[in-house]
Amino acid sequence: VEVSWDAGAVYQNYRVGELHFTVSQSRAEGSNLKYEAMMRQGTPVEINGFQAVLEESGPEPGDNVSPANVSVYWRQGDWFFSVTGGLPVPEIKKIASSLD
Q1: Residue scoring higher pLDDT (93 or 40)
Q2: Rounded CA gap, 39 and 20, in Å?
């Protein structure tokens, strides 16, 4: 696990071989505009009873090197969370749901 702090957000980076994901947490007050824009995109999902959005991005056509990326973003009280990584959607949602 690698932990970093940048501009009011904490990032926890996990990697095992080719598998990786990042958990971030920041105060919601500084993330409102970004959060509202993200909630208008992606697929609505629920994480621990909170409205969240799921985004999937794949490599560009012809790019056989870059992995697909899955992200889920949500606000929980005064906190903004995200889980992003090169894992299948069910695994990203399971990780997000474990942050209670």
Answers
A1: 93
A2: 24
The boundaries of the domain holding residue 62 are 26-97
Per-residue tokens: 15: 């990697």
Q: How many domains does the chain have?
A: 1
- 17 falls within a domain: no
Q: Is residue 45 part of a domain?
A: yes
**Is residue 44 included in any domain, yes or no?**
yes
- Helical H segments across 1-100, by residue range: 32-39, 89-97
The span from the CA of 32 to the CA of 60, in Å, is 29
Q: What is the pLDDT of residues 36-90, one digit of tens each?
A: 666 678 899 999 999 999 998 876 666 666 667 999 999 998 899 999 999 999 9
